[in-house]
Design goal:
The chain is of the alpha/beta class. About 40% of the residues lie in helices and about 15% in strands. Strands 2-10-9-8-5-3-4 form a 7-stranded mixed beta sheet, with helices on both faces. Helix 2 packs across helix 9, helix 3 crosses helix 4 and helix 10 packs parallel to helix 12. It starts with 10 loop residues before the first strand and ends in a 10-residue tail after the last helix. Bound molecules: pyridoxal-5'-phosphate.
Length: about 375
């Protein structure tokens, strides 16, 4: 069997799990009793801080959910959506599609606005569908569609959804913590994210920030015991505990990650560093011939999709393996039409790592005997 190399820390140019700081990792050396008051306090500290990012009026609550981000999305859709209602799902990539898959599993009704691999859903299109379908109660949207890296026009969509009197549920898995999302500037009812993206914690739980008035109406909606967000909330309110075994070490690491997020200047600070990473990356990649899928207007500071070079010697797996040999891990593309790959800008990445990746890219092209990254040869 192939040996696993753990002595050298790879740089993860991926959308999560991401590189975490040593101090975040170190927090996992302490063991916690899940029923113990210390852990209850820790959970409360974490949840209270998360709520403050979207709201300072106590209109929202934070409900953590064990598992990866998809568990939190599934818990949210299962709990917040009335089983008899209709939803509009905005799709421009894999994570919008995944929401429809979740709704299919649960047998919930929905209509879609599907813009293909990377076109943004626009406000006026959403308005048209809501006018034609008065039975739609909620709109589901992905904030940064991580499969292409596009930052969807959330303010525009939120404005329309509010004007039409519907609810808005946002999957902000890969953007929350680095892209501003505040209920004072855009109206929404729920935001879903997870520990291991822009807050730079380790993977193991997600969380949902929900408008209390919406949550109050959700008792009995859930299709699943373990994913019943309402019940998780009620139990937390009553006991201060998670219903089932919590990821104790991960919550402790996340608390440290939140401290470091604050020290970096909060959402604005993180946005600034990730944007710098993205600009340095895109400029450097363009200089060696690569082309981005998206025009600059739609590029997010989270992850960037590049077209693969159009050359007979190009093979993604070999490209990946050679970059890994230089200690950089990238992500395959998710486009249905063109060959592509993705490079993340989030996590403990700074100028040094981006410059290192760019050097490795040039070296790998040379090793593969490909003159440059040009996809249009
Ligand atoms: C926008 C978005 N939604 C949902 C998910 C699913 O999260 P997970 O893979 O942790 O289940 C991801 C993961 O990258 C994502 O980027």
């Amino acid at each position: 069997m192939k040996q696993i190399e753990t002595a050298v820390q790879p740089w993860l140019l991926t959308p999560g799990p991401i590189n975490t700081s040593m101090s975040v990792k170190q927090e996992m050396l302490h063991d916690w009793g899940s029923w113990d008051d210390d852990f209850k306090v820790l959970t409360k500290i974490v949840c209270d801080q998360l709520v403050r990012f979207v709201d300072d009026q106590d209109a929202f609550v934070c409900i953590p959910m064990q598992g990866s981000g998809t568990f939190a999305v599934e818990a949210t859709l299962g709990t917040l959506i009335d089983p008899n209602s209709n939803s509009l799902v905005l799709i421009n990539g894999a994570y919008g599609q995944r929401m429809t898959k979740i709704l299919d599993y649960m047998g919930r009704r929905y209509v879609t606005l599907d813009k293909g691999d990377y076109e943004p859903p626009r406000g006026e299109e959403v308005a048209g569908i809501l006018e034609q379908n008065p039975d739609i109660d909620q709109v589901l949207v992905v904030h940064c569609e991580t499969s292409s890296g596009i930052l969807n026009p959330l303010a525009e969509i939120a404005e329309v959804v509010e004007r039409k009197g519907r609810r808005l549920i946002i999957d902000s898995m890969s953007a929350f913590g680095a892209v501003e999302l505040n209920c004072k500037t855009a109206r929404f009812d729920a935001v879903i994210s997870s520990a291991n993206k822009c807050f730079e914690g380790v993977p193991g739980f997600g969380f949902v920030l929900v408008r209390k008035t919406m949550l109050d109406e959700c008792k009995g909606n859930a299709h699943s015991l373990s994913l019943d967000l309402y019940d998780q909330w009620q139990y937390l309110e009553k006991t201060g505990q998670w219903r089932f075994t919590p990821p104790t070490h991960i919550v402790a690491a996340f608390n440290q990650a939140l401290k470091e997020h604050k020290e970096e200047g909060g959402i604005a600070g993180r946005f600034a560093r990730y944007s710098r990473n993205q600009q340095r990356l895109v400029t450097g990649m363009r200089a060696i011939g690569f082309k981005t899928l998206l025009a600059d207007q739609w590029l997010s500071p989270i992850i960037v999709t590049f077209f693969s070079p159009n050359h007979a010697n190009f093979n993604f797996q070999r490209f990946y393996d050679l970059l890994k040999a230089h200690n950089f891990i990238i992500y395959p593309g998710k486009l249905t039409q063109a060959e592509s790959f993705r490079v993340g800008c989030i996590g403990q990445l700074f100028d040094e790592q981006i410059d290192g990746l760019l050097e490795a890219m040039s070296a790998v092209l040379k090793e593969m005997n490909i003159p440059d990254g040009n996809p249009n040869r």
